[in-house]
Automatic annotation (TrEMBL):
Protein name: DinB family protein
Domain DinB-like, residue spans: 22-144
Pfam families in the record: DinB_2 (PF12867)
Transmembrane intervals: none
Gene3D superfamilies, alphabetized: dinb family like domain (1.20.120.450)
Organism per entry: Mucilaginibacter conchicola
Domain of life: Bacteria
InterPro entries, A to Z: DinB-like, DinB/YfiT-like
Amino acid sequence: MNNHHDILIKELIKLLEGGGAHATLEDALDGIPADKLGVKPHGLPYSIWQLTEHIRIAQWDMLEFSKDGNHQSPKWPDDYWPKEAEPAEGAWDKTVAAIKADRKAFIELLKSDDIYQPIPHGDGQSILREALQIGDHNSYHTSEIILLRRLLGIWK
């Protein structure tokens, strides 16, 4: 790395992939018993499944917005949160795989585009802003997943 742009891209990738001083999203999602995915402990309004699916939907929306001027975002907030507390058969694995695939696609976008320029179909957003928003959003909800796991007695 020999310039500031390369250093910034490297740091953004670290932000999106998580870790460092904190648990990654993969750490937070690893080894959750299937019977705990839909539990809403202590009257909380969401389950681990709902948080994870919300991460997938929001990250997918930011990725698609960043690359497609014809993308229509889901209706906020209703379409960003699953209604059911528990995943349907096979949905959990699909959601976790989609989060990883969309993150990888966004990282490729980070590497290929001028991250500072406004997105042509946006109203001032840039790839840099979207990267920071994805990183912030995912880390916020990752910590909530870990908190739910602690309340359920299934965290390290």
